[in-house]
Write a structure and sequence with these properties.
This protein is mostly helical. It has five helices and no strands. α3 crosses α4. The longest helix is centred in the middle third of the chain and has 23 residues.
Length: about 120
């Protein structure tokens, strides 16, 4: 029973983070602060690594390549959202950093290096 609760919790966190990426990180003011601080690329890699790790734990049977691809697609949709909503140019380098983070997070989860294990009782 505990296995299903943990998978659902990770999946819930991943879905909430995906939504938050659009409504919080999509605001131009957030990007300006990060660009000015030099942390923009680190924020992309770290955020998408955590997102992929949560999806990886929430969908334990999905291959790491599928999880990484899903999370990169979320990053691409986020960039498209910024173009449509705020008129910002599509930033391919951001999608690249999203992809780096996504595949790092997905691979680390698959090889058991991050996040507590899903426990079955």
């Amino acid at each position: 029973m505990m296995l299903f609760l943990n998978k659902r919790l990770y999946l819930f966190c991943a879905l909430m983070m995906s939504i938050a990426i659009f409504f919080v990180a999509g605001r131009p003011a957030v990007g300006e602060v990060l660009n000015g601080s030099g942390l923009h690329w680190i924020a992309h890699i770290a955020t998408y690594a955590v997102l992929a790790a949560c999806y990886g734990k929430g969908l334990p049977r999905a291959p790491a390549l599928l999880i990484g691809g899903l999370v990169v697609a979320i990053g691409g949709l986020h960039e498209l959202y910024e173009v449509i909503r705020y008129g910002i140019d599509f930033e391919f380098h951001d999608v690249f950093y999203d992809g780096v983070g996504a595949f790092i997070g997905a691979l680390l989860v698959r090889y058991g290096f991050v996040l507590p294990p899903v426990v079955e009782r």
